[in-house]
């Protein structure tokens, strides 16, 4: 039994294999192709293949076939067993070695209301702005909604503003913000952080203070839409509708009664639900 965990630790004891594993954790429950992984990590496909095989043989990632492509994602069950082995077996529950259990952090977080929720994308000009406006107006006072970008634009996308205004959202207070604003000591402590674009989720950023519940709700970038004005508008309406569906389901969750694991599973499930046509 212990040799299995030693094999997993050995597989992670390499900077590039560890970077690959961390990427798949950030993108969970997405399945990524080798090409996308190689592009994100700046690794040659031949080298990446060796890393993928090592992690798969150690039981840390899963491989699936879709047509002619092989897709990869983290094996949360076996990876979780490794973490339990480290913290419960190796550390013997000693408080000076083990971090505060997530369950206890969750109980502490229940004392503060409303919940702080941050939506993150790259430019903070469309998708994450949709998230902020939607949750602010749908949340019924239970949530404080924020948005930010890892490389924010100087202004909001005009198509995004038109979609919000057409759906009755107030836009005068919305602005593009850098994600670093929410890592400062004076920033509100987040309960949830959702990335809504793959590029932002791919970035290896520091862990959020307070260990909020995080999930990746990736959506196609409407800013990259080409074609006629009508076709571009359709792309923005599609992103808005998809995010609205997820946020409506999110606000319907009985957050107070869910433990950390159930809540994480619930927000992950929203990422894989079929978006409206």
Automatic annotation (TrEMBL):
<dbReference type="InterPro" id="IPR023485">
    <property type="entry name" value="Ptyr_pPase"/>
</dbReference>
<keyword id="KW-0059">Arsenical resistance</keyword>
<dbReference type="Pfam" id="PF12840">
    <property type="entry name" value="HTH_20"/>
</dbReference>
<dbReference type="GO" id="GO:0003700">
    <property type="term" value="F:DNA-binding transcription factor activity"/>
</dbReference>
<dbReference type="InterPro" id="IPR036388">
    <property type="entry name" value="WH-like_DNA-bd_sf"/>
</dbReference>
<dbReference type="Pfam" id="PF01451">
    <property type="entry name" value="LMWPc"/>
</dbReference>
<dbReference type="GO" id="GO:0046685">
    <property type="term" value="P:response to arsenic-containing substance"/>
</dbReference>
<protein>
    <submittedName>
        <fullName>Metalloregulator ArsR/SmtB family transcription factor</fullName>
    </submittedName>
</protein>
<dbReference type="InterPro" id="IPR036390">
    <property type="entry name" value="WH_DNA-bd_sf"/>
</dbReference>
<feature type="domain" description="HTH arsR-type">
    <location>
        <begin position="1"/>
        <end position="94"/>
    </location>
</feature>
<dbReference type="InterPro" id="IPR011991">
    <property type="entry name" value="ArsR-like_HTH"/>
</dbReference>
<dbReference type="InterPro" id="IPR036196">
    <property type="entry name" value="Ptyr_pPase_sf"/>
</dbReference>
<dbReference type="InterPro" id="IPR001845">
    <property type="entry name" value="HTH_ArsR_DNA-bd_dom"/>
</dbReference>
């Amino acid at each position: 039994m212990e040799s299995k965990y030693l094999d997993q630790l050995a597989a992670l004891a390499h900077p590039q294999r560890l970077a690959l594993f961390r990427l798949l954790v950030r993108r969970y429950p997405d399945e990524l192709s080798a090409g996308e992984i190689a592009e994100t990590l700046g690794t040659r496909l031949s080298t990446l293949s060796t890393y993928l095989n090592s992690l798969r043989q150690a039981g840390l990632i899963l491989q699936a076939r879709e047509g002619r492509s092989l897709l990869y994602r983290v094996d949360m069950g076996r990876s979780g067993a490794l973490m339990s082995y480290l913290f419960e077996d190796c550390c013997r529950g000693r408080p000076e070695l083990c971090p505060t259990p997530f369950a206890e952090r969750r109980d502490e977080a229940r004392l503060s209301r409303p919940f702080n929720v941050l939506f993150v994308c790259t430019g903070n000009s469309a998708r994450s702005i949709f998230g902020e406006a939607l949750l602010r107006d749908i949340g019924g006072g239970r949530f404080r909604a924020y948005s930010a970008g890892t490389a924010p634009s100087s202004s909001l996308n005009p198509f995004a503003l038109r979609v919000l205004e057409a759906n009755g959202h107030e836009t005068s207070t919305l602005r593009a913000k850098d994600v670093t604003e929410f890592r400062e000591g004076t920033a509100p402590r987040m309960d949830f952080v959702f990335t809504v674009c793959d590029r932002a989720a791919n970035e290896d950023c520091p862990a959020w203070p307070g260990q909020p519940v995080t999930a990746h709700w990736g959506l196609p970038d409407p800013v990259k839409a080409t074609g006629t004005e009508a076709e571009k508008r359709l792309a923005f309406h599609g992103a808005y509708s998809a995010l609205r569906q997820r946020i409506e389901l999110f606000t319907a969750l009985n957050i107070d009664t869910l433990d950390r694991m159930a809540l994480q599973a619930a927000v992950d499930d929203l990422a894989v639900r079929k978006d409206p046509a």
